Known about the structure:
By secondary structure, the chain is an alpha+beta fold. It contains seven helices and 22 strands.
Amino acid sequence: MNIIKSNLSKxxxxxxxxxxxxxxxxxxxxxxxxxxLEPGTKTEFLLPVNTNSDSTVIPVTVFHGQKEGxxxxxxxxxxxxxxxxxxxxxxxxxxxxxxxxxxxxxxxxIANVEGFLNRSFRVNPIDQKNLNRVFPGExxxxxxxxxxxxxxxxxxxxxxxxxxxxxxxxNNDLRSYAGYYNYFDKPEISNxxxxxxxxxxxxxxxxxxxxxxxxxxxxYTSREAFIQDIPAVDIECGRMGIVEEKFVQRIQEALWNVIxxxxxxxxxxxxxxxxxxxxxxxxxxxxxxxxxxxxxTSGDYVKKGMKLGYITDLFGNHLKDVHCPVDGMxxxxxxxxxxxxxxxxxxxxxxx
Length: 352
């Protein structure tokens, strides 16, 4: 009897091992950028992007999990001087263990390396173009257009979900929020994006689009993902182009919440039942060139008709007061004095 039990125990043990191994065997190599990445691996490489006269790279880390799951794309550094998302990406890359991961994470550390290294405000110094204004890009275009084309054709198409991470730049005092693309003719994709935005845990969620359909060109990287039928979410966290550790940590927390929400790792995602949805925004642009003054800050609630600030000429003579056209909350504002005619002063989120 003991011999039978012993043999049965051995058979069950072998069967258990075979089942486990069979489960792991289901995860195939991940084919990406002419590479075949094995399950349970972390791979760092530089995607080259070249023109006839210049060259740059896109630093990418791919975490191919031990188990099957979705492909999550995370992009930081589309604007090179938005440092908080870039540093959050660096830390996230140290903390993800592909052996404990279900699915695959493609992490772009810095989409605009030249902008980052040259501390170039918003644009790529090679061609002076804003990467987040040229998607889906051009294969034979300028450097920035080729960067967008590479992201649009190499990274976005292999993703099941896509996150673009931004912050307030040098001139930008910003209230942290998540945003997602919401178009009524694509309810399934929009709702998946909404769930991700909620899972991030930010108190404010901006709905981009929020209309029947998207008919315009992508322009933005995350909108290009939506056009490719991929749920797309933005993070805006950090302010004034400075590095504050609390915002670096907040972005990491939001990304880990998404990883948990998608069941890619064992992460407990806190409920976010009190998030305020902002379905419409109003931008206030400057009508003058000179100095801009305002005592308001991001996150302040404002009322229609309220004086928000004023503009002087280059000698300091008063030119014009700036008044609020709607009720709402300041999502971001220009916080330092230089201003040109047509520049954005405020973005007001409408709150019912």
